[in-house]
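Hi L.,

As promised, 3-isopropylmalate dehydrogenase:
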Amino acid sequence: MKKIAVLPGDGIGPEIVAEAVKVLNALELEFDMEAAPVGGAAYESHGHPLPESTLKLAQEADAILFGAVGDWKYDKLERALRPEQAILGLRKHLGLFANFRPAICYEQLTHASSLKPELIAGLDILIIRELTGDIYFGQPRGRRTAPDGHFPGAEEAFDTMRYSRPEIERIAHIAFQAARKRSQRVTSVDKSNVLETFQLWKDVVTEVGQQYPDVALDHMYVDNAAMQLVRAPKKFDVVVTGNMFGDILSDEAAMLTGSIGMLPSASLNERGQGLYEPSHGSAPDIAGQGIANPLATILSAAMMLRFSLDQPQAADRIESAVQHVLAQGLRTADIHSDGTTKVGTREMGDAVVAAITTKTITKG
Ligand code: NAD
């Protein structure tokens, strides 16, 4: 039986994960789901944001359903004990190198974007971000007294941007394979005009691309990509890029849709094991109020069914059910507008469950 590690975390994490679990249960599939603390909650109970027992559960599971971690009250803790370290630790221990962030604009929510509706209506792009390399992990890094540079003897800090050929090859393959299931287009984003690391990136992505003659590849500098994403986002389909550029561009793309509470994500390793979480954080400002939007987490559960649990039809059922509740006019506060019905976290989850268990939806 497939095993799902359920890690709700902090802030709104437990509220939104409870709804996703409810939706998974409504599918009536055979899963073994086991919950464990992570982030600030785990620091409180175990003295560490990623306790051994939680890590072990995650390693043994086929997939991890993750809520969110973090709260400003932990900002003064030493870095290794901060809630966010749990995510970095899971990525590292499980080798989750490929991050999928779809940015989809639902027809009913086009008004939620700050862009003109015609620019984003029907938007459906997929940002694939390399997640375990680049300047976030490159060594050496640190603080020191500057040995040279503009201010020798001054305090300085430095990080190292690096990518190896195999790291680039494997994320490039992921992007081309994903494009084959979509509209056969990949845009590789780099900064090869300035950075050696990204010249190698561009060279390797181009080489890998030759193995996918059916997929069109183009290259774009990251500064231009940031502009084009707000100028003509629908020109993109699959975007593949490094860790830091992907971090920034995927948030930008998320905001195109105007509703971070709607956007799922997946982080996969070479074995197809994955961590599935909403693109947003723990939203401590609204935690405990029952008003958070659970749809990003519910849609993350759909990605989990598709990518790690071999249940694409069940994923379709969840996605159809989400479309259905939006068409019914149900909205949590973050996406609410005149003429729609405002609902809380739990009511939204219940509505998705109701849509799933309705025959017309399950057949469709
Ligand atoms: P955030 O994404 O938590 O919140 C940003 C804004 O969006 C807030 O106003 C929040 O209320 C709103 N929001 C987010 N999710 C929502 C939802 N589902 N429904 C309705 N509104 C929603 O980002 P932040 O405020 O910058 O960070 C808060 C904490 O989350 C920090 O401790 C940060 O480190 C952490 N964080 C965690 C993750 C993660 O667990 N993967 C990611 C980003 C931030």
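The pocket of nicotinamide-adenine-dinucleotide is lined by residues 12, 16, 68-71, 84, 87, 260-261, 277, 280-286, 292-293, 296, 334 (CB under 6 Å).

Thanks again for sending the construct details.

K.
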